[in-house]
Design brief:
Layout (H helix, E strand, L loop, with lengths): L1 H18 L8 E5 L10 E4 L5 E5 L13 E6 L2 E9 L2 E6 L6 E3 L5 E3 L2 E5 L1 H6 L5 H26 L4 H33 L1
Antiparallel strand pairs: 1-2, 1-9, 2-3, 4-5, 5-6, 6-9, 7-8
Helix pairs in contact: 1-4, 3-4
């Protein structure tokens, strides 16, 4: 009988992990996967479904091939990644109490180091995007704030795993739609510039 309880608990734990988002209310997740004791560093960015979006390997995330993707901040003697660039746009990264983990090939789990959201204001100020795209990004970020509140409320209220999964699916669809709106704004700017 104890084996049966262990099996049930293991199954429930696995379902809970699946219902949790990688980075609820963010566009991307950043992973620092230092493999000790070999001093092998790999850095990865995924979307909310754990699909790899960017990857680099270097001893220092601020140098070499990683410099094109990762942006670093220096706090005293420590250096950490505080932003990423995906498809020419900058995203701010920060720690988040709701961050999750992804199961990689090989079957092991890695925990998110930080969660990243489109920095529309900076992208606009640096001339990376038009005002039209900036407005679409700000609308997406406002929607992501609502998603975060919904997600935190669902966790706090003990929402069932099935309902959490349904909530996350709705939020993913809404994010996909909002990102398509951003892309349409960018495409319209390209057409108008022609």
């Amino acid at each position: 009988m104890p084996t049966m309880h262990f099996t049930i608990l293991f199954f429930l734990f696995a379902l809970i992990r699946l219902s949790r988002a990688v980075c609820p209310s963010f566009n991307y997740a950043f992973f620092n996967m230092q493999q000790e004791p070999f001093d092998v560093y790999t850095f990865m960015v995924t979307d909310d479904a754990c699909h790899e979006v960017a990857f680099c390997g270097d001893a220092n995330p601020c140098d070499g091939e990683c410099r094109e993707i990762l942006h670093c901040a220096h706090t005293g003697s420590e250096t950490h990644v505080d932003g990423i660039t995906i498809d020419g746009l900058r995203y701010l990264c920060r720690d988040d109490p709701n961050k999750g983990s992804c199961k990689l090939e090989g079957g092991y789990w890695v925990t998110v180091e930080s969660c990243c959201r489109n920095d529309g204001k900076r992208n606009f100020e640096e001339g990376r995007i038009s005002e039209r795209e900036y407005i679409a990004i700000e609308e997406t970020n406002a929607m992501l704030d609502i998603h975060l509140r919904e997600y935190e409320d669902a966790l706090a209220n003990g929402t069932s795993i099935v309902d959490m999964e349904a909530l996350r699916e709705v939020q993913k669809r809404e994010l996909k739609f909002a990102e398509m709106k951003q892309l349409k704004a960018r495409q319209l700017d390209v057409i108008l510039a022609s």
